[in-house]
Task: structure prediction
Amino acid sequence: MEEELKDKLGAHRVKINEDMKLHTNMKVGGPADFYFEAENEKDLVEAVKKALDLKIHCTVIGNGANVLVSDEGIRGLVIVNKSEKINFLSDGLVEVESGVDNTSLIREAAKKGLSGMERLMKVPGTIGGAVYMNAGDTGKKEFFGDLVKSVKVIDKKGNIKTLLKDDCDFAYRSSRFQDSGEVILSVKIKLEQVDPKEIEKRTRDILVRKAHHPAGATVGSTFKNPENYHSGELIEKAGLKGKKIGGAKISEKHANFIINEGDATAADVKKLIDLMKKTVKEKFDVDLEEEVRYIGEW
Ligand SMILES: Cc1cc2nc3c(=O)[nH]c(=O)nc-3n(C[C@H](O)[C@H](O)[C@H](O)COP(=O)(O)OP(=O)(O)OC[C@H]3O[C@@H](n4cnc5c(N)ncnc54)[C@H](O)[C@@H]3O)c2cc1C
Result:
């Protein structure tokens, strides 16, 4: 298996038992059996196809900003997506490879006076992650999916196809990709041509709100907000702010954030998540649903 992967993807590029703490924001979890960084769309397609040929499980991640990797690690091939091409077309249409970092796209679009991407200010991650999670600014109800025209994917049989926005089932922190097993290759979005001063204004507003978010090793919001509630408020009212299990702690600054204080395990984080869910259910009869995605052997 190792030799076949190395033959196809390059001996020096396939790593064995790679520590996934190095590739995720929460900095917990065990090793990936096989690890490969895709530098462009061609790499990504080849790696996915090779995993299909060899019948090994394949996990694609971007910046690892929203994932919790189990302590047992991830079986099969992990592809970290670093494809980075941005193609500005006419009329505000932009074709973006899925490994492009949100901040790079915001910066490049702003240079051209194109607005719409501000909703991903300070949302660490790639465009693939933004599509998969329908990431965005919950306060303003502005999500990445709103901008999408079409998404190019490779499906579980290795076919490449283009889906229109309506096929993508975008909803609050949700998309078809969370169930379909399709790998997102690139996306076409539509931005709006505005006065650059307007972009600055929109950006400033988001940055002020984001300044209240805690820093550190975290996945950001642990839970989605249930209808009519804020998860952070419920967790705080349940008296859990500052609660620690092992090296994982519920942030004093924002109770929907868990921080790895340095030596947390994935199990510590999971125990804290379970405690938050159980306590909020008991006290307020509200079910919290994870925004964080579990990957690996749970
Ligand atoms: C400090 C902080 C603040 C945050 N603030 C926000 C916020 O304001 N709004 C918000 O929405 N989110 C926020 N997040 C969460 C996170 O930044 C987003 O979910 C982001 O979109 C994740 O992108 P990523 O590339 O890191 O995805 P990853 O974490 O790498 O992956 C997330 C999921 O997407 C899948 N995936 C990734 N790329 C692909 C692909 N190409 N094809 C198929 N599947 C793929 C992965 O398998 C995984 O299941 C925050 C996180 C942090 C740490």
User: Anything to note?
Assistant: The longest helix spans residues 266-284. Residues 86-210 form a domain with the Uridine Diphospho-n-acetylenolpyruvylglucosamine Reductase; domain 3 fold (CATH 3.30.465.10). The mean pLDDT is 96. Helices lie at 2-9, 41-54, 102-111, 127-133, 177-180, 196-210, 231-237, 266-284.
